[in-house]
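A further point concerns the way the authors explain their paired sequence and structure data. Showing the layout once, in full, would remove most of the difficulty. For illustration, here is how one protein appears when written out as sequence plus structure tokens:
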Amino acid sequence: MNDDEIKSLKTYSCKYCKKNFSRSVNCRYHELHCRPRKPDDVGYRHDVQFGRGHERNGDFEEIKQGLDHLFVTYRKKLTHDSDTDQLQSAFKDALTVLQKEVAVRSGMKYYFALKLTFRKAIDANVITEPPVVLQTDPMRGLPGNNYENDLDKVFKGILQQIDDFESNGSGWVAHEFQTLDLKIVTYTPWTS
């Protein structure tokens, strides 16, 4: 890619310093540290550098965005096999996205949707069409959450759904993990 192509990808601009970003979440996170602050504000850091272009967001790509960023969907393309270690790694990669999103939202709920195919155990040519989509229960995201533990629970829940699909004499076995979507919805937490 040449410099012009790279610049054309950076469509989000900081409203304070006009620095450009290719991902809206990176721009919103940057704006938190860039906005003018009072001189006595100890939360302000002059040395914060974010959005230099090498953050990969765990290879999750922002694919949809709702009104005023209330709803965002990130997608990670998977390896098109049934390797559960690779699937677990994909869930762990979501940690970066969740940490950035919770920094720019007062509160959020998130869940995952795994798109995969199953094949018949007795005939490898019989594959589910269209692919099956398994969704996790919504989780609450707040600053200070232990997202590593939460992601581990979510991954175990998905494995249980796969086991449930394969059991009960169905004859189906997991064939290919295709995509993993992370869906985030903003909400205002109750204050007490």
